[in-house]
Amino acid sequence: MSLNGKTAVVTGAALGIGRAITELLLQQGAKVALLDVNKTASESLMEVLHKQYGRERTLFLNCDVESEEQIKAAFQKAAETFGGIDIVCNNAGVLNEDTWEKTVSVNLMGVIRGSYTALEHMSKLSGGRGGVIINTASLAGLGPLPSCPVYTATKHAVVGFTRAMAAASTASGYGVRFNTLCPGFVRTDLFSSIISNSGRFSHLTDATQQLVEHFGIVDLADVAAAVLEMVTDETKNGEAFLVSAKRKEYVRFASFV
Ligand SMILES: NC(=O)c1ccc[n+]([C@@H]2O[C@H](COP(=O)([O-])OP(=O)(O)OC[C@H]3O[C@@H](n4cnc5c(N)ncnc54)[C@H](O)[C@@H]3O)[C@@H](O)[C@H]2O)c1
Ligand SMILES: CCCCC[C@H](O)/C=C/C=C\C/C=C\C/C=C\CCCC(=O)O
């Protein structure tokens, strides 16, 4: 399914998984607003994207997802420039067990802030045309990463928040689908920072290495493809897509009702 005529906002778009998602959405025909705090990486990516897709289909907005003011301004600018928003990927994330409050602030509060701001533009109840929101969690949102308890907590929270928002959206008639991306280990800057950023759990590096060997390293292209699948399959709402080197599947959660 082509995304021609669709407009997207991706946070943490300059590098790693966010960059791969951005490039795939562009390849499929969407216009994309790239939100990131890393101005240098964003500007060099924009040069590449301008050459490949022209200047009209991309927009870089310097935006820290920790700031309500910056997020609101960035979404407003994206909506004005492209004429509405159809797809939002709340992807920006950090891993740092030393500065764990920031990890909670970016990974969880940033996703909540991005989701609520997105709804202001996308909900059919507030004049939007509906759409889909994909929140990036992790395999660590489904099971424990022992060297990173706070990171694990934020990612479990993103899974829970997104599932609850999917149900709230259906019950309220927002016309917006919510799904979670749960990648395994991906070779990015965040992955490389594990040893320096595990804080009081740095002695558990070997245990992390064993998990990396168990789950393998997943390709960025497979992670981006999982996002595209959740964006384009209009039957998917409240789902979590697990994408590791060995498994690519929707998660089956226990049902208590
Ligand atoms: N790399 C992995 O193994 C892995 C696995 C599962 C999930 N994830 C998740 O995927 C997402 C992307 O991670 P990545 O591996 O691509 O990391 P990365 O470090 O390569 O890229 C993260 C991007 O987010 C941006 N960013 C960080 N803080 C920000 C903020 N406050 N506001 C706006 N932008 C901000 C960075 O500048 C960077 O461009 C994160 O949510 C991460 O937790 C990563
Ligand atoms: C080493 C760098 C840190 C990367 C963090 C990133 O988000 C990736 C995490 C990958 C794996 C988390 C580790 C363990 C999860 C444990 C169990 C998951 C069980 C899922 C299932 O079988 O359904």
From TrEMBL:
<dbReference type="InterPro" id="IPR020904">
    <property type="entry name" value="Sc_DH/Rdtase_CS"/>
</dbReference>
<dbReference type="GO" id="GO:0047034">
    <property type="term" value="F:15-hydroxyicosatetraenoate dehydrogenase activity"/>
</dbReference>
<comment type="similarity">
    <text>Belongs to the short-chain dehydrogenases/reductases (SDR) family.</text>
</comment>
<protein>
    <recommendedName>
        <fullName>15-hydroxyprostaglandin dehydrogenase [NAD(+)]</fullName>
        <ecNumber>1.1.1.141</ecNumber>
        <ecNumber>1.1.1.232</ecNumber>
    </recommendedName>
</protein>
<keyword id="KW-0644">Prostaglandin metabolism</keyword>
<dbReference type="GO" id="GO:0016404">
    <property type="term" value="F:15-hydroxyprostaglandin dehydrogenase (NAD+) activity"/>
</dbReference>
<dbReference type="GO" id="GO:0005737">
    <property type="term" value="C:cytoplasm"/>
</dbReference>
<comment type="function">
    <text>Catalyzes the NAD-dependent dehydrogenation (oxidation) of a broad array of hydroxylated polyunsaturated fatty acids (mainly eicosanoids and docosanoids, including prostaglandins, lipoxins and resolvins), yielding their corresponding keto (oxo) metabolites. Decreases the levels of the pro-proliferative prostaglandins such as prostaglandin E2 (whose activity is increased in cancer because of an increase in the expression of cyclooxygenase 2) and generates oxo-fatty acid products that can profoundly influence cell function by abrogating pro-inflammatory cytokine expression.</text>
</comment>
<dbReference type="InterPro" id="IPR002347">
    <property type="entry name" value="SDR_fam"/>
</dbReference>
<dbReference type="Pfam" id="PF00106">
    <property type="entry name" value="adh_short"/>
</dbReference>
<keyword id="KW-0276">Fatty acid metabolism</keyword>
<dbReference type="GO" id="GO:0006693">
    <property type="term" value="P:prostaglandin metabolic process"/>
</dbReference>
<dbReference type="InterPro" id="IPR036291">
    <property type="entry name" value="NAD(P)-bd_dom_sf"/>
</dbReference>
<keyword id="KW-0560">Oxidoreductase</keyword>
<keyword id="KW-0443">Lipid metabolism</keyword>
